[in-house]
Amino acid sequence: MEFLGAIIGVADVTARTTSKVWALCESWKDAPSDFHKLKDDLTRIQLFFRETQEGLSSAPSRSSKREWDADTGSSIHISNDASNLGHLLEVGTGVLNRLEHVVDDLRGSNGTGDDNVLRRGRRLKWMAYAGKVSKMRQELGDITSGICRMLVVRNV
Predict the structure, then answer these.
(1) Angle at 81 between CA 78 and CA 85, to 5 degrees
(2) Is residue 116 assigned to a domain?
(3) Over the stretch 89-130, which tens digit does the pLDDT of each residue have?
(4) How far apart are CA 45 and CA 13, in angstroms?
(5) Of 16 and 115, more confident
(6) Domain annotation covers residue 71
(7) Is the dihedral angle over the CA atoms 110, 115, 120, 126 positive or is it negative?
(8) 119, 133, 126, 120: which is closest to 105 by C-alpha?
(9) Does 74 fall in a domain?
(10) How many domains does the chain have?
(11) Residue 72 is assigned to a structural domain of this protein
(12) How far is CA 87 from the centre of its chain?
């Protein structure tokens, strides 16, 4: 299936970002609740992409670009779902890469220096990133909803 490669790529970026978020949560004991919400969202999104990947891997290949419309009783042409899905996956990968950059910045200097200074610096950085991260969480939710709708329409 044409989407499988793109889904695998996004699943890989999601897994990498989720892993970094989990590691940061382990070391940042007093992380803000919104950061834990990000961790939960990424865990769900990682599961979504993994299950989508498995579903696409096991789905029979459909070469026809025409579908049967049960409402009208006629054959219809599937719209540009492939390009729309590709666009959503591309945007999703971009959002995940930006989130990964935020997490890398929050991780800061790994264990070097005063822990109190690192915690304060991390909290200040989080305050600067919190609004952006909230927007990215919303974008990822919209993207996964859009992908889910497209896959349902394609009967995958």
Answers:
(1) 165
(2) yes
(3) 899 999 999 999 999 999 875 555 566 777 788 889 999 999
(4) 11
(5) 16
(6) no
(7) positive
(8) 126
(9) no
(10) 1
(11) no
(12) 13
> Residue 136: which CATH number?
1.20.5
Nearest to 65 by CA among 80, 51, 50: 80
Q: What backbone torsions phi and psi does residue 68 show, to the nearest 5 degrees?
A: -90, 125
120-135 burial, b if ≥16 CB within 10 A, otherwise e? eebeeebeebeeebee
Residue type at position 51: E
Please name the residue that has the structure tokens 């793109």.
Answer: 6
State the residue range of the domain holding 116: 4-59+82-153
The predicted model scores a pTM of 0.77
What letter would DSSP give residue 66?
E
Find, among 33, 39, 30, the residue nearest to 122 by Cα: 30
Contacts of 33 (CB under 8 A, 6+ apart): none
Helix (H) / strand (E) containing 76: strand 74-77
Q: Which sign, positive or negative, has the C-alpha torsion 64, 70, 74, 80? A: negative
